[in-house]
Structure formats: structure tokens, C-alpha cells
Amino acid sequence: MALARSWSIALLGIEGRSVEIEADIGAGMPGTKLVGLPDPGLREAKDRVRAAVRNSRHTWPDTNVTLGLSPANLPKVGSSYDLGIAVAVLAASGAVPAGELPGTVMLGELALDGRLRPVPGVLPALLAARRLGHRRAVVPVECVPEAALVDGVEVLGAAALADVLAWLRGEAELVRPEAVEVPDSQHVPDLVDVVGQPEARWALEVAAAGGHHILLTGPPGIGKTMLASRLPGLLPPLSRAEALEVAAVRSVDGSLRRSTPLELVPPFVAPHHSISAAALVGGGSGLAVPGAISKAHRGVLFLDEAAEFGPERLDAMRTVLEEGEIRIARAKGVVRYPASFQLVMASNPCPCAPPRETDCTCTPAARRRYAGRLSGPLLDRVDLRVRMRPVTAMRAHEDRCPESTEVVRRRVVAARARAAERWADHGWSTNAVVPGRALWREFALPRTATELVERGLQRGAITARGADRCLRVAWTLADLDGAERPDGDHVASALEFRDRRAA
Questions:
Q1: Hey, what long-range contacts does 317-325 have (CB within 8 A, 24 or more apart)?
Q2: Counts of helices then strands in the chain (DSSP H, E)
Q3: Which of 23, 42, 140, 476 is the most buried (most CB within 10 A)?
Q4: Are 244 and 252 contacting, i.e. CB atoms less than 8 angstroms apart?
Q5: For residue 400, is pLDDT > 70?
Q6: What share of the chain is helix, strand, coil (3-state, %, to 5)?
Q7: Structure pTM?
Q8: Is beta strand 268-269 parallel, antiparallel or unpaired with respect to 214-217?
Q9: Closest to 344 (Cα-Cα) out of 376, 308, 300, 311
Q10: For residue 31, with 0-12 CB atoms within 10 Å meaning exposed, 13-18 middle and 19 or more buried, which class applies?
Q11: d(CA 214, CA 200)
Q12: What is the per-residue pLDDT across 112-132, written as a single tens digit (0 to 9) for each?
């Protein structure tokens, strides 16, 4: 009887758990048994691994093999355990020494001929491995650039099972990562391309400076999508920690670009209005996969034709907008994905949406039904609402060139720096995430400044949440003006952004 162990990582969302793979070779009829809550894809691993071992010029034990994946009550999903299973079996049979296995994580899917195929989720798996105390990881060679983003873990890449076995015997070296390329420039559309729309441009700058959600309403063809696509260029570049969060979600989703796995440009995600609720917020069978809101983490989620998405999908985001993460419960467990994004919605004022409002043929009831597709609770979480007007001339301002993205970004970065310095002791990075209790107590404004907000509360024009959000926008306006704190004019301007006639 022989026993050997190797280690891998199980992912629940982007959170990783260490999995110990035990291989026991004992007396009995030839056969392989796999235990430890494997999913159907993992149950097939014993056949894949057996063929890969044979085609790597090694012998599979011709006796009873029991494979245990511990902890046994943790669901195991996917094919990333193949390499760990093969190494554990060969170490138990004495074909390779087991001296390098403790502290080493094995990740990779095996082809029948022994090639090592890439698997999704390598980046979050290694982030978890570092946290759990593992010091080394062996991954498919295609995943080395992604794995190299994790500091503190020695990353080794292999093209085939035979390479890993030769490394365990001390006969060969595995591939080591090269320097990771991080793009130093942001390739985003420029704000200078937008014709007119000074109010909407100003609202976009305010949204970028404070991290606020925004709704753009107006007839088609006036630049709502153009403005939304230029918001990522106004935002500051991501920090390395934020870029790793974005890359971890993309890694689980399988959309991470291996040539440039770390990008500092905030993501811009614009799903079509026919998207399902599961694809928007995350879901699927088994353990849920990330949705569009998580792919937009640390960036912008743009919902064009927002009224066409339907209340089921839009209202599913209400809690996410407050908490910055999505929790999805399934029979096999609860997964959490980050979803801290800026929401930008664009909507037409009515179903017919003519270029000029005077040409509208919709009945008042039809306009109300169309506007009612965006629920009150959702709109209450949107800080800025802008009614855009048709462009009446394309050459009227040729002598006055609009401001470029670079010019506006400098003001946004300066405003964000003021906010970050002010909230640094409390752990808040932008005005949009400051809780209401801090705005009304620790950083309370004079009654003369908040008089309009309190009057709106008394009349029922705004909710308590709306009052908090007005103050957040007021702080952003003060930061853009370079003021120490908001005054009555800043609060009044913030209230104008919540005018329901813009919705």
C-alpha cells in the first residue's frame, strides 16, 4: 500500500480554498475511484489522466487506485485538478519523488496525449494560494503571464505532463515567467469628438469626479452613447490592486487576454438589452459564473436603451448598487463576485422617440408606461439625471474647440485626490461611497446649506436616500470647485441633478 499527496485550489467565485489530493494505491481489482464531491467534468478526470500518463511513457498502476479530494464536503468543479491527480498517483506508485510537492499548487487540464491545457481562474487561484501559505505553483505554460501577476509565489510553467515529471526528478527545469507588460497609455475615445451638449458633458465630469451613477435621457442620435463610452477615459487609471481585482474576474470568466493580462484602463461593459438576468448579474448551473456587472467591476456598466431591459433585470441591480458586490445562492453554495461599478443608463423619452419632441405621437399614457419601466427605487439610486436636447448645428462652435479628455481628466483627478485625502482616515475613496450618517453627523454642513434638502424631504420630493445622495454630489461639486466644503449653491445644483423630469 502506498500513499502520496499533492495540492490544488478550488474556486468559489473568486475566493479560493486549498484542496489536498490524496492518491492511495492498494490491493484489489484494478480500478480507479474518485471521491470528494467531484462534478461530472471532474469525474471524467480519471480517464483523461490515465491516458495522459500512458502517453507520457509512464505506467498507470494495475491495481486499485483511490483518489480523495479534501475537504470532502467542498464542491470541486472543472478540470484544473488533472495535473495534481496525475502527479499524486505517480508519486504514490514510486515513479517520481514527492519531495517537491509540499507547498506546491498544481493547476492544469491534461490532454489525452499528455499536453497541459490552460484552465480558467489561475489568477484568483494563485492569489488564494499565496494567502493560504503555498510558496510555488505549476501551471500550463500559456497561463504563466497571468500567474506571474501574483507576487510572493514562485511560478513555473509546463507544456506537458512529461515536463513536470522530469522537473520532479530533477532532470529538467520548467518555464519561468518574464516581465509582465502593463500598457502605459489609455486607448479610449476622446471627449473632444462630442458636439455640443455642455450640460451632459458637465454631468459626465461630475460623475467621473465623484463615482456617481448617471442617467442620460433624450431622443436618439444626440450623443448619449458617445458620452457614455468616453467616461472610462475621464476616470483615473486603476491601481495595481484594482487591476488585479478586474483581472481575477476576467480570469474566472475566461476572457482574460494572456498577452496583456493586467490593464490599467477601467473596463467598459455595454450589454445588449436582450441579455438575460443571469448573464447580467451572474448565474448558471452549479456554481454561478460572473455576470456583466462583475465584468464591469472598477469600471463602467452602460445600459443603452435602459427602458428595454425590463424591470426584472434592472431591479436585480438595486442591492448591488448599494453594496458593491453580488451574492448568488445555488444548491452547491453561495458565491460572491465584486461589482463596484459606475452605472450609466441611456433612455429615450418615449417609445416613438422623434428627433423633435413636438413631433411625438405617443399618448400621455404611453409615455407614462414607458417611463415607468425605470422603477422609482432604481432611479432613487441614480445621482445624476440629465435631459439632453437635440443638436441644432454641427459647425456653430468651430472657433471654440471642445475640451479634450485629457483636460477634463486633470480636473477629475484633482477632485478625486481632494476627496481621497478627506476620507482617508475612514477608508472611503470617493464621495459616492460615503455613508449618510457621516454626511449628516461627522461632516455635517451648516443648516443654511442643507435647507433646500430638508425642505425637499418635508414635501416628499426626495427620499432619505435621495437626500444622502444629494449631499454626496454636493461634495463632488465642491471638490471640482476647489472649495473646502459645499455651500448652498453646491447643494442646490445637486438637487437639480435629481429633477425627476429628467428621468
A1: 317/280, 317/281, 317/293, 317/343, 317/378, 318/377, 318/378, 318/381, 320/281, 320/293, 321/213, 321/381, 322/381, 324/433
A2: 21, 16
A3: 476
A4: no
A5: no
A6: 40, 20, 40
A7: 0.91
A8: unpaired
A9: 300
A10: exposed
A11: 10
A12: 999 999 999 999 999 999 999
φ, ψ dihedrals at 419, nearest 5° = -65, -45
DSSP 306-364: GGGS-HHHHHTTHHHHHHSEEEEEETTEEEEEE---EEEEEE-SSSS--SSGGG----H
Residue that is written with C-alpha cell 496525449 in the block: 113
Return the C-alpha cell found at 320.
448591488
**Residue 76 vs residues 8, 81, 159, 255: alpha-carbon distances, Å:** 11, 9, 24, 22
C-alpha cell of 139?
501551471
Please compute, for residue 434, the number of CA atoms within 13 A of its CA located in the half-sphere on the CB side.
31
- pLDDT tens sequence across 287-335: 788 999 999 999 999 999 999 998 889 999 999 999 999 998 877 778 8
List the grid coordinates of 160.
506537458
